[in-house]
Amino acid sequence: MVPPRREFLKTTAAAAAAIMTSSPSLRAGMPDDRSIRIGFIGCGGMGSNHLRVLSKRRDVQMAWVCDVDAERLAAAAKIVQDGSGKVAQTTTDLRKVLDDPAVDAVFIATPDHWHTPAAILALDAGKHVYVEKPCCHNIREGRLLAQAVERSGKRLQVGTQSRSTGFLKDGIERLHKGEIGEVLVAKAWNSQRRGSIGKTQPGSPPTQLDFDNWLGPAPVVPFRSNLLHAVWRWWYDFGCGDIGNDGVHDIDVALWGLGVESHPSRVTCFGQKNYFDDDQQFPDTQYAICEYPFAEKSGRCKQLIFEQRIWSPYVQEGYENGAAFYGTEGVLIMGHTSGWKLYGPRGKLLGEQTGSVDLPAHHQNFFDAIRDPAVTLHASVDAGLLSATVVHLANIAARTRQVLEFDPASETITNGEAANAMVRRQYRNGHWAVPKNV
User: Fold this and answer.
1) Rg (CA), the chain
2) Are 60 and 36 in contact (CB under 8 A)?
3) Domains in the chain, please, with CATH?
4) What gap in Å lies between CA 253 and CA 162, rounded to an integer?
5) Residue 37 near residue 102 (C-beta atoms within 8 A)
6) Each residue of 275-314: pLDDT tens digit?
7) DSSP-assigned states of every residue in 255-282
8) Distance CA 128, CA 113 (A)
9) pTM of the model as a whole
C-alpha cells in the first residue's frame, strides 16, 4: 500500500504558537461571538493536520466536522475537543454544515473529485472556502469554481501553503526583482519513493464507511480496498495522480516564480507506468513541457517543465520536491519544503535561505481576508487554476500521447476531439452535487 504522506509540517505547532502570541486580535482574546465559525469537510490525513492547528486557535470556533467514515469522524471530533475544549457537531452529510447559517467558512479536505462540487455548494450557501489542492478535478470544473467565487463575493483560498511561507516568498521576490535576469524556464520535480497499491477485486465497503456518499457526484464504481484512504488519488475518477498531489505544489511554485498569469498554449507529456505493476492508473514516470508564448514585454516565450518519478529514492538538485528557475543571468534552486540557493554567473553562490512550510500562516492569511476585504489572498482561485490546469493538461497529454494546442481564453484543446473531451468529466446522473453547466 502507499505509505503515509511524508511529514513536511514538523514546525506546525511552533508556528501556530508564534501566531497566537504575535497576532494583536489573539493577544486581545477575541471573544467567542466574534470568532470565525468553521465547518470542516473531510478529516483524513491533511484534514487532520488542519484540525490540529485550527482547534488550538482562539479566534476561530470549530462548529462542525464532517466525514463519510465514522471512525475518522469520531477521531476528528476528538481532535477538536482535545485542542479547544469544546464539542463540535458531527455529520456524514456536508449539506448539514452548509445549511447552518452560523457557519462563516468551510475547510474542504476531501478526495479530489469532491473539491469543486463541495466548494461551489459552499460558496452558493454564502460560506468562505479553504479548499485543498488541486482546487478542481478537471479544467471545466475549475472555471465553474472561479465563476462561483465571483458571483458569491466570498473568499476562497487554495491549500498551496507554500504561497504563505516566508523563505519561499523571499526567494520568489528575488526572482521578480530580476536578480537572475529574466526567468525564461522553470523546472519543477517530484522525485520520491512511493509504494505499490497492489491489485484488488471488487468487494464490500467497511461498515463504518458511507461509500455511496464518498462517491458523491462521481460515476458509481464497485468498492475496492485500494480505492481509499489516500489511494483514491491514483484512480482517474477520483484523483489526479501524484502530479496533482505533491507535484501541484512544485508546479505552483514554479509558475509563481516564472511570473506567468495565463495558461500555456502548448503542452506535451510523456508519461506511463515504468515501475509499478498494480492497479494505479496514472503514470509513475512523467515528463511534461508547457509553453507560454510572449509572456513578457520582451516577447520571449517561457517554458515550464515538470518531472516525476515516484519510484525513485533519490533527491534531485538536493531536494526531493522542488523547482529550478533559469534566468538570463543566473539560476535559483528551490526546495519547497526546506530552502533555496541562488547562483549568479560562473556558478557563484549569491544567496541562500532555509526554512519549512508554514501552514498556520496560510490559515492566517485566509482569516485576515475574511475579516478584511482589502487583504489579498496568497493562493486565490486564479492562482489555483493556473497550477491545476497544468496538472490536467499534462495528464491528458500523457493519456492521448499528443502535443496539445490549448486556447487559454476558451480553455479548450483545439487539435483533438478526444483530448478536448477530457477537459470535462462524466458525472453521476442526477446527483445533487453535480455542478451546474458542466
Assistant:
1) 21
2) yes
3) 12-163+361-379 (3.40.50.720), 165-197+230-356+386-421 (3.30.360.10)
4) 7
5) yes
6) 999 999 999 999 999 999 886 667 789 999 999 999 998 8
7) HHHHT--S--SEEEEEEE-SS--SS--S
8) 20
9) 0.92
